[in-house]
Amino acid sequence: MTSFLRLLSAAALVSLTVIGCAPTSAGSAEQQRSAEAPAARTVPLEIRTAKGVVRYRVEVASTAQEQSRGLMYRTSLPDHGGMIFPMVPSRFTSFWMKNTYIPLDLLFIRPDGTIERIAAMAAPEDLTPIESREPVAAVLEIIGGGAAANGIAEGDRVVWGEKR
To answer: Which of 38, 67, 81, 109 gives 138 a disulfide partner, CB atoms 3.0 to 4.6 angstroms apart?
Structure first.
């Protein structure tokens, strides 16, 4: 009975924290076009790696609506572009790839700015939850394979916006 309650609690936690490419109906062409539009603002972002600084310009998904939509329906990302999902307050989180058409690397960022986990090459349309292993302050989505191509590793430091 105790293991059943633990399983039920875990399932409830995952269902409450799944964000990013949340399930939606296929939607109209107009809805899909609006999903292609960038988030309201972009910020510069730097990842300080052992090989040097890698610079990005990323969209900020700060509202619940922006975080729900994430990068759904996108067919490409600009070179050194992406989307950051601030988590206020820091928390365990989980993403999935429904309605996401391009592979992504998900970088889970601790409150101190270091990368807690890199989930590389998340498969398009995959419903498997991709979870943080500890509470995080943000999640950064970049093009799949981008972390490895740029020498980005767990423990590297990420700074964005006015924090730079």
So the answer is: 109
CA distance 67 to 89: 15
Phi-psi region of 55 (alpha: psi -120 to 50; beta: other; left: phi over 0): beta
β pairing state of 42-49 and 94-97? unpaired
Q: Helix, strand, coil proportions of the chain in percent (round to 5)?
A: 25, 40, 40
Instruction: For residues 124 and 99, give the distance between their C-alpha atoms in angstroms, rounded to a whole number.
Output: 7
Cα–chain-centroid distance for residue 44? Answer: 16
Q: 29-34 long-range CB contacts below 8 Å, 24 or more apart?
A: 32/73
Q: What does the pLDDT look like over 65-112, one tens digit per residue?
A: 999 999 999 999 998 999 999 999 999 999 999 999 999 999 999 999
Which CATH number covers residue 148?
A: 2.60.120.1140
Alpha carbons 145 and 139: distance in angstroms, whole number:
16
Domain count, the chain: 1
Domain that holds residue 124: 2-163
pLDDT digits over 40-77, tens only? 589 999 999 999 999 999 999 999 999 999 999 999 99
